[in-house]
Amino acid sequence: MTATIPNLPSLYEPFSTEAKWQKFWEENQIYKADPNRGGEPYCVVIPPPNVTGSLHMGHAFESALIDVLVRYHRMQGRNTLWLPGTDHASIAVHTMLEKQLKTEGKTRYELGREQFLERAKQWKAESGGFIVNQLRRLGVSVDWSRERFTLDEGLSQAVVEAFTRLYEEGLIYRGEYLVNWCPASQSAVSDVEVENQEVNGNLWHFRYPLSDGSGYVEVATTRPETMLGDTGVAVNPSDERYKHLIGKTVTLPITQREIPIIGDEFVDPTFGTGCVKVTPAHDPNDFEMGKRHNLPFINILNKDGTLNANAGEFQGQDRFVARKNVIARLEADGFLVKVEDYKHTVPYSDRGKVPIEPLLSTQWFVKIRPLADRALEFLDQKNSPDFVPQRWTKVYRDWLVKLKDWCISRQLWWGHQIPAWYAVSETNGQIADNTPFVVAKNAESAWEKAKAQFGENVQLEQDPDVLDTWFSSGLWPFSTLGWPQQTQDLATYYPTTTLVTGFDIIFFWVARMTMMAGHFTGQMPFKDVYIHGLVLDEKGQKMSKTKGNGIDPLLLIDKYGTDALRYTLVKEVVGAGQDIRLEYDRKKDESPSVEASRNFANKLWNAARFVMMNLDGQTPQQLGEPIATELCDRWILSRYHQVIKQTSNYIDNYGLGEAAKGLYEFIWGDFCDWYIELVKSRLQKDADPASRRVAQQILAHVLEGILKLLHPFMPHITEEIWQTLTQQPATTPQTISLQTYPQLNTQQIAPEIETQFELLIDTIRTIRNLRAEAEIKPGAKVTVNFQSENPTERQILTLGQAYIKDLAKVETLTIADKSNQATVTPKESVRGLKTIGLIIVAIVFTRLAYTVGYAIDEVPIFGTFFEIVGLGYTAWFASRYLLSASARKQLWTKLFPPTTKQAPQATPQPESAENSIAGVVGTIQVVIPLKGVVDIEAVRAKLEKSLSKAEAEAQSLTSRLSNPNFVDKAPKDVVQTARDALAEAQKQAEILRDRLRSLV
């Protein structure tokens, strides 16, 4: 049966291709995991994006990295599961719904909890899958049949199980503690939900008079209204200025309360006045000092950010209004010393977009120390988990050591409602700080417990608060696999293999997962933690909503294709964990780096089209395994297996960027630019059939291998080409995703051949560069003379001269020994003997002449005459035959006339270097005679003109940058642009000088 000749369109069109294969993969459940399949498991659980979110560049970057790992290990034969899902984003959804209600003139309390939650579920059903659909556009190879949501039934059961177990073990308790409070959402928020912003504010200095009338102390604060809750003033006990005051009291202005002066090592004597006000209920550091010194805790704030009854005359005022009024009162009473401009950091609620308030509140807490110590034990004894890069291990460890009890309750309705029921019948029908409660897995169990404890008439009300989102996220690696039930998925895929995440949530998510997993499963939830960096904008700045400098990945996908964006993000990584910078033109919404990756896709597409057009309709399997017959065949197979080894080593060690760059260089350079060009002549119909078939075999074999190597990085284009190359049936096609990754054959690796070929490539490249510099027409054939002292180099050039002639458009090629320019030929040997004989005759003649001359010299008058004649003749002979090269050559010709018969030379001697252009490769001198090929003087004139222009530009920029007024006063980016331009002009001038020097 004759195979159908495969055909790819002339242009690669990514958009329809990518959509086609994304649909194919999902509809055919290509990535559905099977715990019964066997094989070593490889499991990744997706860092769940917020259900309210939309795809940003961080999501695209992280997903691309994970997909490379998952696709690679799947092709390596691992039993692979990448489990997708989303987080319910408690605060984000809650805030969004409250904003909607506000536009309708309603509050959640008017709507009621049940209707509020129904509205939230309806929103999730309609819009909650938005980010999931965007993730699909990235072509991620997840098992969509196992998609999870942190509020789905199974995960909700896991949350309740974890809470009740921890409570029963004494590791969850309810108590009063200082929390981050968001007045806008009226909820406690976690540290990760706080965004520190630098603001231009003020530092107010006030006098607090000593109660004994002996003077005052001066304190400074950025939050004057909190002085209404001060219960102490602190100094460092070693501070000579104040230590005599420790134990005394001051009278707090406005309230007239007496508060003590305490000594505490926490106080920095060098900061401010060295004397600080202490407000234990409204500052975390003051909270700790208050506990150490048994100070009262006075809360002056309501949950909506207004002041309460403890604020006296300022009760009911908004915190910022009260601030102005407190300052005015202190100034009027003479306690205001001064006001300073002060730039400082203010914590803002990420969701509420208002400054948070440290607030004393009764909340639910996890006793963190036993959980953190268990995680530390795994780290110190087993180095588990293993962080990549290793430097993050210390950061993770330090965090575990410093962890304090974790506030897990949130005053919201969207989320996991805390499984605690209050016996409100014991506190007049209200939930108060002292209301007794029971913890249970469901309402029925709670009733049973409460009746046993409080009697048949007990009235119960479930805690209205919900759990911190991070509580359910902390269970994610094992709750998604079925825990607390002992499912087959849990038995097969847990612990997971790799967690890929950003460094900014090591503290908030990674540590919570390891603590929860260590406690509930007795294992760390993942073997490796690969910490990636950030995607920075075109200026190297972190992308943020506040700065408005984000780059929409979907815009770039629409312009260049998914594969191009994915490949760019991975290829830009230089070393695990490093930030990457994405080139972007905001005026045009274009990215040169992503465009370069699209060009790479087009290069591969065109190369594949050429290969398939020259296979006579045969697939790689039909052509069979290649056996190299020529030097270039052995070279490309060696390079191919080197790249297999290199790529696998890089990915195995999380060097994903290095792997991507190595593939780029091999595919674009070695395969497309060199091997394909080298074998074109062998593919002609009139070429030697045996050589032609070997070329076809190698082209097909290496192309299929390239597609498999590149598939984890660019899955769509590789699938499309592979389907055509292997001629998969339209009805039941296989997929490249499930093919075996290329296997390394070390016997194919030949470093010596690679070295030889590298020299040939460099030589061809040098000839091409010299042709370009001399502006030789592309189709014109030239003469090239090689001179080298190295016999190995000359041998390589001889072996590869056919390649050099073909790819560098060389007609005549000469290879000469540079170190042996005076090589003796047979004719020259005769001349040498004549020379030796002449020297001997000359010596004899000189001796005879000396004897005769000496005898004549004894005769009066004759001696002096002969001396004068001899001296004169010697001077004439030297000036006539010895002073110039042409005269010496003329003398030699007279003494030894050339014979008419020339001995044949084994190697043609190189032409004169005059009017030639030259370059160097290793120790090889490459000379191209230009006579009759180009107008060398015109080339020289053009180069000199360009050099003058570059030197003038460099001189102008140097003068500009030498001007202090410009350097000091011009914008930094303008100065940097000038410096960059100077460096470019200097570089260009040096290149032009080199070209002029090469015109010998």
Automatic annotation (TrEMBL):
Residue ranges of domain Aminoacyl-tRNA synthetase class Ia in the record: 20-580
Subcellular localization, as worded in the UniProt entry: Cytoplasm; Membrane
Keywords, alphabetical: Aminoacyl-tRNA synthetase, ATP-binding, Coiled coil, Cytoplasm, Ligase, Nucleotide-binding, Protein biosynthesis
Known catalytic reactions: tRNA(Val) + L-valine + ATP = L-valyl-tRNA(Val) + AMP + diphosphate
'HIGH' region, short sequence motif: residues: 49-59
Domain Valyl-tRNA synthetase tRNA-binding arm: 935-999
Job of this protein: Catalyzes the attachment of valine to tRNA(Val). As ValRS can inadvertently accommodate and process structurally similar amino acids such as threonine, to avoid such errors, it has a 'posttransfer' editing activity that hydrolyzes mischarged Thr-tRNA(Val) in a tRNA-dependent manner.
Protein name: Valine--tRNA ligase
Species of the source: Calothrix parietina FACHB-288
Lineage: Bacteria, Bacillati, Cyanobacteriota, Cyanophyceae, Nostocales
